[in-house]
Structure formats: C-alpha cells, structure tokens
Amino acid sequence: MTRSPLTREAVLEAAAALVREHGPGALTMRRLAGELGTAVTSIYWHVGNREQLLDALVERTVQDMGAIRAAGRTPVERVVSVAAGMRRELREHPHLIGMVHERGLTERMFLPAQRALVAEVRAAGLRGARAADAVRAVQFQVVGFVLVERNRERSPVQSPGEGELWDPPQGSAADAPATAPGDPALARALARPADPERLFTLSVRALAEALLAQG
Questions:
Q1: Burial class (CB in 10 A: 0-12, 13-18, 19+), 143
Q2: Which of 43, 92, 172, 212 has its CA 20 to 30 A from that of 120?
Q3: Distance between CA atoms of 95 and 21, rounded to whole angstroms?
Q4: Which pTM does this prediction carry?
C-alpha cells in the first residue's frame, strides 16, 4: 500500500491530536514521528523544531477561534451567539488553549471574538467605556462559566450530592436536607441536575439584555 506524502497540515493535525488527548507535555518530536510513521527528520523538515511546532499550533488555534461569527435577528441574540461560539471553542480545545495561555498569547486568541462583540455592542448603540465594559463583561462571563463547568465535570463524586441536599426531608432533623421555606417547587428544581446549556444561555442572555439596554 502506497503511503500518502507527509504534509505540514498532516503533521499539525497529528500534533494537535496528541495535545488534545494527552496534554502539551506529551508532544515530543519522537512520539509525533511514531504517530505518523515517519522519521524525526521529516517532522523537522515540515515544521521546524518543537518550539516552532508549538508556535504553529498556537497560530492554528488562534485561527480556529477567529471563525466565530454572530447570528440572530436581534442584538441580544447575536451577542449570545458569539458567546456560545466562544464557549464551544473553549470546551473543544482545552489543552490547546492552555498551551496558548502558557505562551502568553491568550489576548490574541480572544481578539477575533472580541472584535465580533465590539461590532454587536456598537450596533446596539453603545460607545466608549460602556461598550468596552459590555464586551469584557460578556467575555469574562463565558470564560468564568467554562471554568466552573469544567471543574464540576472533573470534581470527585459528591456525597451527599446536590440533588440529595434538596430532596424532601427524611430521617432525623439532624440529617434533614436543605429546604426552601414556602417554595417547594424551588427545592424540587434544585434537587434536579443542573442543565449547563440552558444555564449558559440564560445567564448570557440576561447579561446581554442588561448591558445593551444602556444603548
């Protein structure tokens, strides 16, 4: 069987897959060559040394983040769509984005999404410091939400879990779970697992509505 010629894009794709699956520390030229079934010298010929390879991966990640585009009919819908695009990219490329941060290029990575937000808040009538605050508030909301979301996903199993804390009271008073006086529907809702997708949209929409109302 004839092997396809090695290309720079194939090297970058394999390197990105290694980082995505095992973290930046797993990316060595020898291991990458093994994944591609080629000699280390061939890797050097296509992408240079490891530092140059990392720079190329960073640039690739920055370009991917730059693909975020606004969608929707209203200013709020369009801001929410940009925020959702940022969240999607952060969740799909956690190791690559961590690598971007380590190389001091985080602000550059977020610049395309920031530009998209600038266009939307200006179209909604915000200017100057108010527009800047709106852009950064949305950006911080997205990053903070993803950090909390990922920490919850990676945390050990809680005992008692959130749902158990808000279950209807059972046993002795000392073991009784939390209650919401006068609002059993609230307690039942808190006992159910959180829906990150719905909460993200809810929080960003509320933030965008409040910020854009200033325009």
A1: middle
A2: 92
A3: 8
A4: 0.77
CA 87 to chain centre: 4
Instruction: Read off the tokens for 131.
Output: 């527009």
| 134 and 82 in a common domain | yes
CB 65 within 8 A of CB 89: yes
The residue range of the domain holding 29 is 8-48
* Residue of 39, 149, 135, 36 whose CA lies nearest to 91: 149
Domain presence at residue 176 = no
108-144 pLDDT, tens digit each: 888 888 999 999 999 999 999 999 999 999 999 999 9
CATH number of the domain bearing residue 110: 1.10.357.10
pLDDT value of residue 168: 57
Q: Report helix angle 94-102 to 8-22, nearest 10.
A: 100
Report, as an integer, the average pLDDT of 156-173.
64
Would you state the pLDDT for residue 66? 65
pLDDT confidence of residue 177: 55
Which H helix or E strand runs over 135?
A: helix 128-154
